Amino acid sequence: MDNGSPAEGQSAREQELLDRVVASFDDTPDPRLRQLLQALVRHLHDFVREVRLTEEEWRQAIEFLTEAGRITNDRRQELVLLSDVLGASMQTITVNNPAYAEATEATVFGPFFVEGSPRAELGDDIAGGAPGEPCLVEGSVTDTDGRAVPGARIEVWQADLEGCYDVQYDDGRVAARAHLFSDDQGRFAFRALTPTPYPIPHDGPVGRLLEAAGRSPMRASHLHFMVSADGLRTLVTHIFVKGDELLDSDAVFGVRASLVKEFERTSEGSRVRFDVVLAPAGA
Ligand code: BEZ
Ligand code: FE
To answer: What b-and-e string marks burial along 246-262, b requiring 16 or more CB atoms within 10 Å of the CB?
Structure first.
């Protein structure tokens, strides 16, 4: 054969192997696990066959994953990073958060959320001394019928002007993260930092992959939110800065047009409005 496809006999041998591997999972008692494993095997074999994967390439892939596992620890999750740069994290979010009426869109969670953030009152400065330009953030939380959602829990976290989250420093600082609650009319306000661009960790195998592909590790400037309230779908999202040059090349494909906001210039820095609309739980 000179058209890149295997000869008929060869193709039959490959198919026979695939069929046997798929069948080996036929008796998996949990039907969902069976579906996942059999689909995984089918797609994996299709990939190997489509690109005619060499043994040396497979060895390199295993080495890559081994190294990603080796450098993963409590503060560094290289495999999540891999999922992020391949768009798998964002695709999983897209599949699991279908558009619902005017509900605010979700985007990637990222590795820098920390449970137990400090409690802030409405109007507080959550920067906690982190370097950066001040930004006033104001908004509201409503449901998709336009009803105010009082008492919604709003978690916010962001990188500082150095491009680092507090947890990336070794000194145990807690800064530029907090949680607060919407008031009795569903409104919220806090002071934070005007978001600035920063690179995802790129000193490991995922960084080398990006480099080999000529891709940038930079994330578009953003501020993270997680908003939750009884009976409503928890929203994990960011707001992005209108005019940011990185909006079209975010390393983890997190940008959605509806999340790009105008950060208006003020004498102190900037101000932005973010009105959050939550879908019903289970929507
Ligand atoms: C973040 O926005 O914090 C983030 C998301 C994905 C990978 C790395 C960082
Ligand atoms: Fe981030």
So the answer is: bbeebbbbbbbeebbbe
Same domain, 158 and 35: no
The verdict on residue 283 lying in a domain is: no
- Neighbouring C-beta atoms of residue 60, cutoff 10 Å: 11
Our answer on whether the CB atom of 278 is closer than 6 Å to any ligand 1 atom is no
Tell me if 81 CB under 6 Å of ligand 1. Answer: yes
Q: Which atom of ligand 1 is nearest to the CA of 201?
A: 8
Protein residue with its CA nearest to atom 4 in ligand 1: 110
pLDDT tens column, 71-99: 998 888 999 999 999 999 999 999 999 89
Boundaries of domain holding 224: 82-278
pTM, two decimals, is 0.92
The model's pLDDT over 140-172, given as tens digits with 9 standing for 90+, comes to 999 999 999 999 999 999 999 999 999 999 999
